Amino acid sequence: QDKPVQATDLVEIFEKLGGKHPGFRKAHAKGMCATGTFTPVANDEFAGAALLNSGQLPVTMRFSLGGANPASDERAPGTRGLGVQIKLPDGRLHYFTGNNFPVFAGKDPETFFGFLSTLLPDENGKSNPAKTMEFVKNNPSVQANVMWNKTAKTPASYANTQFFGLHTFYYDNADKVRTKYRWEIVPTLGVKTLEKDEAAKMPEAFLADTFAKQLADGEVSFSIVANIGEAEDTDVDPSQQWPADRHQVTLGKLTVSSAGSDVCKNINFDPNILSAGFKSSDDPILRMRSPAYAVSFGKRLSNQ
Ligand code: HEM
């Protein structure tokens, strides 16, 4: 657990846990692509950002289930994700790629990898919950995520799911004044989950149909909001939430116009690709995401 973990190690363990599925994403294999627009809201904290001063911008997004299995059961609670690619007029891209849990499972790639390792079946093909419990006890930084997973309910729809950026990012304005923030994507239709018995009555795959129906019935949209960090809020640890009372500003609104295209296939929703003025923090999980996504991108495009 002490030796540095590489992006290839993480992709490999995802494949061990979720199976080898050539041509699919090595995480969030099952998903749905959608297109829409981003309508910015100007504000002082992000003054001068091209992202918020270029009018309405085209968006490609992908909603997904966690895990490497492209046939995941959508009735199960657990990870849901959203990748958002916003295209600026000069061709520059800005990504927001987040999940529905508010804290990550580990403060760094080594802890995350160590945790995943405990979930692997042993030589008899059996999982060993005691091993996982022992790891969780000894690694406080995975505990909040494990607790979240214990109580998480099945999301009723992607349109009723809130997504968290988890990591800390910065925006430096022209006067070099820095805004430190963490973003969230909040559904206009509200967060809705299914109780166990309700979920059991659903078909194994219902998310695409539910979404299409909501889109046909009215507007499906989300707000992108930024929680503004204070000096004592961690910059580098996505396993720790910031206090809930931080000043919040709206960056803009994401409105979905269509769902179900396959344009996401050739997109790598790398959260470190940001438009002018924005920067990633040194959060080691955030930094690990670029190489891991690149490994997966290369593999899936070459049908591995
Ligand atoms: C070290 C930690 C992480 C690793 C190794 C990792 C790895 C990956 C990989 C390999 C993919 C597939 C990329 C592709 O083929 O295009 C992926 C997709 C994704 N990840 Fe992560 N990830 C990590 C952390 C996170 C975190 C913290 C979040 C949420 C804040 C997140 C959200 C997502 C989402 C939403 C997708 C799907 C994007 C899409 O639809 O293309 N991941 N991740």
Automatic annotation (TrEMBL):
**Cofactor(s) listed in the protein's UniProt record:** heme
Enzyme class comes to oxidoreductase
- The highest taxon in the source lineage is Bacteria
The positions flagged as active site in the entry are: 28
Instruction: Give the E.C. number(s).
Output: 1.11.1.-
The keyword Transcription regulation appears for this protein: no
Q: Can the keyword Metal-binding be found in this entry's annotation? A: yes
Q: Which CDD domains match?
A: srpA_like
Alphabetically sorted, this entry's keywords are: Heme, Iron, Metal-binding, Oxidoreductase, Peroxidase, Signal
The Catalase core domain, residue ranges:
1-304
List ligand-binding residues for heme.
293
Classification via SMART domains: Catalase
Kindly list the biological process annotations in GO that this record carries: hydrogen peroxide catabolic process; response to hydrogen peroxide
What's an example of a GO molecular-function annotation for this chain? metal ion binding
GO CC annotation: cytoplasm
**Role noted for this protein:** Has an organic peroxide-dependent peroxidase activity.
Q: Which family would the database say this protein is a member of?
A: Belongs to the catalase family.
Protein name stated in the entry:
Catalase-related peroxidase
